[in-house]
Design brief:
homodimer; alpha/beta; Aminopeptidase; three-stranded antiparallel β-sheet; 12 strands; 24% strand
Chain lengths: 301, 301
């Protein structure tokens, strides 16, 4: 395995502050593991972090679309420049190249500790399977959504998002920080084992595959006119079947799920997604049998 | 009693959205009480609400300091103009005068359902005592803090804040909404009873009197360098004694409460107060014997 450097990003969204503190704490605590892999810890969006907001001009975690080299003209959108900077600096062809990117996020939804991967890259499967095997974490496989592209980790050959909630924006929560500390340590352990060929992949990977998102009920002016139904609140990853309540609107009318397909919802009521017109996303469960090729591809990184 | 009109304000902070929905729902539901009192429901800061932020230029709930008449020049701060508008419109000498103002807020701190009053106005005591008697709610009496002035309800002859948490900014929570609905109904019931001389005050009022606020540990650059200690998280209203942990900083050092006076903390870790350099506020408990004069003053409104 040729992995030399791994990028750990916190604060890609400036108001998700617990990962930033977790990284600070992690760096302070004794760290005995060292198999020749260097870790680069960076705050994704330091300006937004300073201001306590998600982003300045645009969502950084949707800004990794067309990366340009340093020499090209500055964009008027701060996050486009920041995405360019991060890739030019830490991307696989950057000045301090990292082979893997781990992006640490929090959500206001009750997702617990979960993993998000983008598309079906074997290298990501490998890392995700190891973490799932260790902790039983749910994995959200995001794919085929034209409205949602340009995620940070997609700009690296291997990478995943650690998504932990529920926690409010800008709110420090020691329990959430502890969960990040456990994940960061474990990730480093697993990668060290991989580096030393000490790893055995679990037989399968269970993923929740993105099927699309739904919006809140809205009034004629386009304003949100419905709440997540109490039966749905905090029920991320819990199956929904036809007839189950989704929202109730300002007229007291209950809006129900009306399709036959069973679905598992995620990011229920995520505050930051209101502007994206997402009240929750739908997923379906899929079991993927693991393949030796996953480790081989990972080793070729 | 001469109370004719009561102002119910939600969304004084634009990202505290549950009260806005509660009022919407309250207006929709059947409402049989009507003893000749009119209720005026208004969104305090509609522009901030639309943008999903606490305020545009400055905290509206600190902007009721020097109210000017309509004819005077516009201020460059949106919230100053808005405060002027609200008082000119709904103040005791306004065009649609209201004698009482009830201001509905949420907090990210684990305060439960609580009441905030400003100073020791007997009319407020009267209303607060009735609510406390009904629900056992804790009351935060805010006074003598030069750094915190210009609260909305202070611009009315009688008024109080209903403060409910913990709930994240911009996050709809049906449980929080239900709590507001209960309080709004009860307030209306109690005021109707007062209007019909059906009220008997409880013997005493228990208040938590503001003693000051403390900031987070900060580093040499002035950045926050410590978290609320896990033993303190969500422990609003719970007594602190000398030696109890308050924070732990990035060096892992625990900062402890070092005074002899017993204190009861409130607004622990409130997200919106970071910019005010408040990690929590200290209160002391005080029991005030109720007096007939409270009702008399209320009746003279």
């Amino acid at each position: 395995m040729t992995v030399q450097r791994i990028l750990i990003v916190s604060g890609t969204h400036g108001n998700e502050i617990n990962p930033i503190w977790a990284v600070k704490q992690f760096n302070r605590e004794a760290n005995t593991l060292n198999y020749g892999i260097e870790y680069e810890y960076i705050i994704g969006n330091p300006v937004a972090y300073e201001k306590g907001c998600r982003y300045i001009d645009d969502d950084l975690n949707r800004s990794f679309k067309e990366i340009k080299s340093h020499n090209q003209q500055k964009n008027s959108v701060y996050e486009i420049n920041r995405a360019n900077f991060l890739v030019n600096q830490f991307g696989i062809n950057g000045s301090n190249p990292c082979q893997i990117a781990i992006d640490l996020h929090t959500t206001t939804a009750n997702m617990g500790t979960s993993i998000v991967i983008y598309g079906r890259r074997f290298k990501d499967f490998c890392l995700a399977a190891l973490l799932q095997n260790k902790f039983g974490l749910p994995i959200y496989l995001h794919e085929k959504d034209k409205a949602q592209t340009g995620f940070l980790v997609e700009a690296w050959p291997c990478g995943l998002v650690i998504e932990i909630g529920a926690v409010a924006q800008n709110f420090y929560d020691p329990k959430i920080i502890d969960r990040f500390l456990i994940i960061i340590s474990s990730l480093r352990e697993e990668i060290d084992k991989l580096k030393n060929n000490l790893i055995e992949l679990p037989k399968e990977l269970v993923v929740h595959v993105h099927q699309g998102s739904i919006d809140y009920p809205r009034d004629e002016k386009g304003d949100i006119d419905g709440l997540i139904h109490p039966e749905r609140m905090n029920q991320d990853w819990k199956i929904i079947k036809k007839g189950d309540p989704l929202f109730f609107d300002s007229q007291g009318i209950i809006h129900r799920y009306d399709r036959d397909q069973l679905i598992w919802p995620v990011f229920i009521g995520e505050v930051a997604y209101k502007e994206k017109k997402i009240a929750m996303s739908y997923t379906k469960k899929e079991v993927i049998c693991s393949e030796k090729q996953w480790v081989q591809e990972f080793e070729s990184l």
